[in-house]
Give the backbone structure.
Amino acid sequence: EAWEQLAQLIAADAERTDDDAEKVVLFRQAAEIHANEREDHGTAAELLEHALELQPDDRDLMLSLCDEFTASGRSKEALEVLERVVESYGGRRSKDLGDIHMRIAAAHLADGEEEEALADLESARKMDPGSIKVLHQLGQLSIRLAEKAEGDARAAHTKRAANSFRSLLLQKLDDSSPISKAQVFLYLAQVNLLEDDKKKAIQMLERALANDKGLDEAKAMLDELKG
């Protein structure tokens, strides 16, 4: 389990070989050891950068490098790599590209850039309109933005949140989903409160509890609204 020495040996083998494809395989192996066994994501990123120089159009390599940049706190560099991935699709629509936009949104959120994250979540929804994960995150972010905004901006964010969570009710939600049906009704209650519709918010909370009697947040909200 001398992981550092093992990774160094594999990286040295990569430097010695004249076969570019073999270099890439070895650099990736060394990077995986640094990342998974040593949690040294900075060194892993350096090795993946060497690999990407040899295969600059390899999307899997780009995504791996993005993960290591993110894990080592280099979100701006992660964003640059993700933009390269988007460009590699040449404007074509793809569910895979929806996942890339979600990664970009996550990187923006890590830097506190909520409006930028919103734009990428909207792009992700266009690529994969039925994605439960996209609709969930888009709805959550829209509620947060609505709570901070006023006037037309508040109304626009509230409408987007409502559309996102109502769309979730049309999806098949199960135990593996990132959000339950009860939680969707809870979020819709929050949307109703943003719309100043207390009566409808109470109805949504009652539906939430009908689906999950143990949803404490819905219970607390309902008790508060009923006074």
Notes: The mean pLDDT is 95. The chain has twelve helices and no strands. The longest helix spans residues 151-168. The two ends are 61 Å apart (CA to CA).
